[in-house]
Amino acid sequence: MRRRTERDHAVRAQEYSLQAAEAVHDVIAQLAVASRRYPPQDPRLSGHQDEMVLNAAYLVDADGEARLRHAVEEVGACGLSLVLTGRWAAYSFATLDVP
């Protein structure tokens, strides 16, 4: 019974994390010119002990950077652990148009 309860709790926590990640992505993507999602990184690669549920890049203009940082701070205040990195080169958004 205890194992079942623990397993159910873990499943609910995972579902909550995935739903929260979707909500965070939706908010931040609205502030961005473009966004890209990537598979979550393995904790051994990311250096974080917790499981990653959102791995994304957001392209923002100079004015959007402050709004994006503010949105990340607000979401983080709600109990989610977010890691914001960058400024990075916009290579995630480069495309090769071949005729």
Distance between the termini: 62 Å
**Structural category:** mainly alpha
Rounded average pLDDT: 81
The value of Rg in angstroms is 16 Å
Helix share, percent: 40-55%
Main sheet record? 2 strands, antiparallel
What does this structure look like?
The chain has helices spanning 2-31, 43-46, 62-76, and strands spanning 34-38, 55-59. The chain has a two-stranded antiparallel sheet. The chain has 3 helices and 2 strands. Helix 1 runs antiparallel to helix 3. It has one domain (2-93). The model has no long low-confidence stretch (mean pLDDT 81).
Tell me briefly what this model is.
Helix content is about 50%, strand content about 10%. The chain has 3 helices and 2 strands, in the order αβαβα. It has about 100 residues and is mainly alpha-helical.
Secondary-structure topology with pairs:
Layout (H helix, E strand, L loop, with lengths): L1 H30 L2 E5 L4 H4 L8 E5 L2 H15 L23
Helix pairs in contact: 1-3
